[in-house]
Amino acid sequence: MHYLYNKTDRMLQNKIYQNFSLEIVKTFFIILFGLSIIAWTVRAVNFLDLIIESGYSIFTYFQYSFLNFFGIATKFIPLSFLLALIIFVLRQIQENEFVILWTSGVKKIYLVNLFFILSIFILIIYLLLSTFFTPYSLYKSRLLLSKDQFNSFLPTIKMQQFSDTFKGFTFIVEKKINNEVENVFLHDKSNNLKNLSSNISEISSTTIVAKNGLIDKKKFYLFKGQIISSKKNNEENEIIKFEQLNIDLSDLSTTTIKKPKIQETSTIELFKCVFTKEKDNRYCNINSKKEMIPALNKRLTIPFYIPVIALICSLLLINSKKKYFHQISIFAYSFVLLLLTEIFVKYTGLNEMVKIIFFMTPFVLGILIYIFLILKFSKESIV
């Protein structure tokens, strides 16, 4: 009979732990999604300016924005887990759920272990996103811009403002009404307009001025102007007047495509650069070791601070006479820890000692907090 009671108690406790786990995980994903959507919306407005001003299509804009969502969501994982745990604990305290658990014989350390197990689950999610999905999605977003040509000149044109959206190609118009422009100035160093000159090999740059014109997607239809071809070796410029000139500039490439950034580089490539000293790797040539080490630590070490957050939140289970001050302090400790990790990870590339301290801190701190909790809970049970 005693065995049956123990078995029933264990089943009931397991059911309670399961419900607790589901509630925490559900709250975590709701907070993560909410924070990510807010940040993504703000970022998407900036993306809109970048994409539209560079002449890309609205479809490219949505693709580019979606691919950047993973990077935004990854940054909010530790904070979302912290908030989810604190909300859960405070709710259970307010509803006296924990009092029922403690009086029924459930030990507080069991709940701490539950928090820790959940933190490992969140840690794995963070690692997968930070090491694989986020760099890959950021890489794909940049690849998207490099493959997708600009859609039209019209979005890039602003009256009485020079546009340098395209590599080696600058233009300005005095007035624009729909697709009609007046007093057009074009200057090309990208060799796209060299064929307008009689002697292509001697031309260094081409300038076109026109009284008015029409724009049809990637084409200029210019009227009443002249072509000024600047020759090499400071020779006299070649000038050709025209009544109508049709220019197709589909081959222009935008300046938004720059060299690959560290956050877009795969974790494997960063490992090769830091630990194998590859010289032929293009990522190694672009980025310095001092920049790559913090990037690796951000992906691989910061996730291990999540279990520490779980253990700090477990301090809320300790009985305290100054209840509200105690609760606020725990949140402050956790938030400051998250803030410090984001700050100090940037300095891990400076020297070996900083890197070792940053890597060892979550393990040492986690063990110390866990031992402190065991001692504190044992004293409470004696009292």
Write up this protein:
The structure is a single chain. This protein is of the alpha+beta class. It folds into two domains: 2-148 and 259-382, no CATH class; 154-248, no CATH class. The protein is 58% helix and 16% strand. The chain is built from twelve helices and six strands. A six-stranded antiparallel sheet has the order 1-2-3-4-5-6, with no helix packed on it. Helix 7 (267-276) packs across helix 9. It is elongated, with a radius of gyration of 31 Å. The chain starts with a helix and ends with a helix.
Keywords:
383 residues; alpha+beta; 2 domains; six-stranded antiparallel beta sheet; elongated; disordered N terminus
What is the number of strand segments?
Answer: 6
What is the global morphology? elongated
Count structural domains.
Answer: 2
Spatial gap, N to C terminus: 31 Å
H-E string: HHHHHHEEEEEEHHHHHH
Number of helices: 12
Mean of residue pLDDT values? 78
Main beta-sheet annotation: 6 strands, antiparallel
Find the structural class using helix and strand composition: alpha+beta
**Over the alpha carbons, how many angstroms does the gyration radius reach?**
31 Å
Q: What percent strand?
A: 15-25%
Query: Biggest sheet, strands in spatial order?
Result: 1-2-3-4-5-6
Question: Helical residue percent?
Answer: 55-70%
Low-pLDDT runs: 1-5
